[in-house]
Amino acid sequence: MPVLNSVYRHREFGDTLTSLAEYERAGGYLGLQDALAMTPDDALYAFHRSGLRGRGGAGFPMGRKASFLPKDTGKPTYIVVNADESEPGTFKDREIIEHNPFQLIEGITIAAHAVGCERAYIYIRGEYEHQAQVLDSAVEQAREAGRLGPDALGPGRPFDITVYRGAGAYICGEETALLESLEGKRGQPRLKPPFPAVAGLYGCPTLINNVETLAALPPIMHRGADWYAAMGNEKSPGTKLFSVSGHVMNPGNFEIVLGQTTLRELIYDLAGGLRPGREVKAVWPGGSSVPVIGVGSLDVPLDYEALNGVGTFLGSGGCIVMDDSGCIVRASWRLAQFYQHESCGKCTPCREGTGWLAKILGRMVHGEGRGEEDIRMLESLFGRISGRTLCPLADGAVMPVQSALNLFRDEFVRVAEHGSPRPVPMMEAPVG
Amino acid sequence: MTVHELDEFLAPLRPQYADPRSLILPALKHVQEETGWLPPDAMATVAEATGFSQAYVESIATFYDRLYVEPVGRRVINVCVTLSCMLRGSDEIFEHIADYLGLDGEGTTDDGMFTLHKVQCIGACDRAPCLQVDAGEQIGPLEPADATCLIDDLRDEPAPARYCR
């Protein structure tokens, strides 16, 4: 199980890099220097060759996305950084921003050179006020040093970054809802196409990428696309940060080379395993919006394709672990409540359907279930919600519940008939 | 806050956006920092400073969880209750705080000191169970006793100069 802390510099350096001088001493801004020595097209081609995939959840190849931006439209081109990290179980972007904001800023600047952009926006969730202040300070330091401003990309080539704070809405992590919010509208998703690459912020060509994705660009430019592509495997190159939480002894972020670490190794070797005498019952490996998998899938290697092979997704890498003390129906109910709360209300199947999921699961848990009738009603709901909405929030609400019902049907039936007493939670603070 | 004061805050932001509509959210957040919540006259101030109707400004304010269109206490205690926190005892933490504050679930204490909210994932599952006071740094992992100590400390603090929520 090779563990490399090679992409995110603060991990390699072993300390927080929140001053520009420290970041430069640790090798910062060499990637931008190398990128600026290339033509924009060559830089774009390097993104391609690295094989870097979007780390926000969808896993779309970053270089391909950047190449969709039309040129010479007469309109400005924007970069929007998705720092709205709100997927339950995910806290990797928080770490990058808190400990290594300049690698993100350098990555955005490299992308700006490649796509010809003069202004980028970092849309950060309102709950990350502390982290937004770290970014404010980093942007200000970069500006004072001329790393942002009128000559950021070379003499006469301006580039600057605006930090934009959200105000509490999960849906604003969906890229078109994020754009709406940034444009001063309610954060409700748009119909696609047109895609943001063509008509994004203010109707202009826009590259939207996640924090972790853009922060990977500096080492890709400095050490070379081939170096990055050589890690992991053909379809899932590079490293990925996994956030592990729930019933593990040592919750936290772990950077792994894709395809070379199994889920079991992530949970037991990196995240400290479970309490003595407990076993894994259920894992949501890519945030809460992915199908849940059971103990039988623990030996899956962590990469995009292998996780698809066991019926789930790598998603955002927010790996939530539940041990055998937990009740799967109670966990599903809690997630259903999340989606009910976060549905933006635009599409009827999601607005109404997420409420029904939460209502039925809630009465089951509280001993007011209607037995098989509730199970059948749940099953009839899935297809009426999933695939019938503008954005994937509704699919994300259905997948964890539907997969849980498939995997733990007996438990659902038992809870629908008898309810589920509240289990004793894992209260102790993690030790070492 | 007067329209003029808000204008001064917005002036350096204006050139950063191609559409002044983008100023509404920063303006609402800025006004809320002073008043703690967004009463109708705050909406009117934002409407006038940004050039959009009050109805439109209110339609934005009501969309977001962390913009408060009802009065809240001096400090807002946001207890995360999403899955990772639930598995590590967030429901017990929430109930413990509610009992300690004499609240029956979510709500504001009679003395106006605290508003207690259940919130969705605040991105600190490595610190579960965790909470956030206003939009401060995520605090955890918590035991019930930690939570009540925190409340006592907050009670002794003066009101914050700005309500960063």
Describe this structure in words.
The complex is a heterodimer of chains A (about 425) and B (about 160). In chain A, the strands form 2 sheets. Chain A has a 5-stranded mixed β-sheet, sandwiched between helices. Chain A has 3 domains: about 220 residues, Rossmann fold (3-Layer(aba) Sandwich); about 80 residues, Ubiquitin-like (UB roll), CATH 3.10.20; about 90 residues, de novo design (two linked rop proteins), CATH 1.20.1440.230. Helices cover about 45% and strands about 10% of the residues of chain A. The radius of gyration of chain A is 22 Å and the shape is globular. The mean pLDDT of chain A is about 95. The two termini of chain A are about 20 Å apart. Chain A is built from 19 helices and 9 strands. Chain A is α/β, with parallel strands linked by helices and about 425 residues long. By secondary structure, chain B is α+β, with helices and mostly antiparallel strands. Chain B folds into 2 domains: about 60 residues, Arc Repressor Mutant, subunit A; about 80 residues, Glutaredoxin (3-Layer(aba) Sandwich), CATH 3.40.30. In chain B, about 40% of the residues lie in helices and about 10% in strands. A 4-stranded mixed β-sheet of chain B has the order 2-3-1-4, with helices on one face. The two termini of chain B are about 15 Å apart. The relative contact order of chain B is 0.13. The chains are: A alpha/beta (about 425), B alpha+beta (about 160). Chains A and B meet through strand 3, strand 5, strand 9 and helix 15 of A and helix 2, helix 5 and helix 6 of B.
